[in-house]
Specification:
Layout lengths: L15 H10 L2 E4 L7 E4 L1 H4 L2 H15 L5 E5 L2 H13 L2 E7 L8 E6 L4 E6 L9 E9 L3 H12 L3 E10 L14 E3 L4
Parallel strand pairs: 3-4, 3-7, 7-8, 8-9
Antiparallel strand pairs: 1-2, 4-6, 5-6
Bound molecules: adenosine monophosphate.
């Protein structure tokens, strides 16, 4: 460890506003990835900064402490954000996985992509009856993934208290696909 630095994983010692600006500065725009015309929001620099990452998880934990019984994360970056949040809250974690990855019986939902369709799945016994769920992902874009995931949670017996995303690409209008589902955008305006 470098002298004078907090150990990796220690929360950042700054207030929420400064922390959010730091988090924002650690998200890299990658033009034309994975396809031409898409600006990919790369959270790898954020994940690589232990203090900022831990600070972000701390902010989310403050928001959901006592309000949820379980965290559900959407594959794959929703796992990276959702699992440490669950640990911080002392609750369980449910992975919402891409089709074909979960063993045994599953509940599935399909949604439209720009070209073609995609499917996601959860295990039918993933949620205890009426468990309160924080649903987590990194980016809300067209909203198809989040809408399908929220529908799956409901079909598996959970109640989504709120969808939490790091960023929202508002120009894509994803919220219109989410009905009255509450949405928390960490790096909102
Ligand atoms: P959508 O279903 O269009 O809302 O897309 C959301 C999902 O795709 C999330 O799981 C994101 O991780 C991913 N995604 C969509 N657009 C981007 C983007 N510009 N940068 C990074 N991830 C994205």
């Amino acid at each position: 460890m470098t002298a004078g630095r907090l150990p990796t994983g220690a929360p950042a010692q700054e207030g929420p506003t400064a922390l959010l600006e730091r988090v924002r500065g650690l998200i890299r725009d990658v033009p034309d990835f994975p396809t031409p015309g898409v600006v990919f929001k790369d959270i790898a620099p954020l994940l690589g900064d232990g203090e900022a990452f831990a600070g972000l998880i701390g902010l989310l934990a403050d928001r959901y402490r006592g309000r949820v019984d379980v965290v559900a994360g959407i594959e794959a970056r929703g796992f990276v954000l959702g699992a440490p949040l669950a640990v911080a809250l002392g609750v369980g974690f449910v992975p919402v996985r891409k089709a074909g990855k979960l063993p045994g019986e599953t509940v599935a939902a399909s949604y439209d992509l720009e070209y073609g369709t995609a499917s996601i799945e959860v295990q039918p016994d993933a949620f205890h009856r009426a468990s309160r769920v924080a649903l987590v992902d990194d980016v809300l874009a067209t909203g198809g993934t989040a809408a399908a995931a929220a529908g799956l949670v409901a079909r598996a017996g959970g109640e989504v208290v709120e969808l939490a995303v790091l960023m929202e690409l508002t120009f894509l209008g994803g919220r219109s696909r989410l009905g009255d589902l509450p949405v928390h955008v960490v790096l909102g305006d």
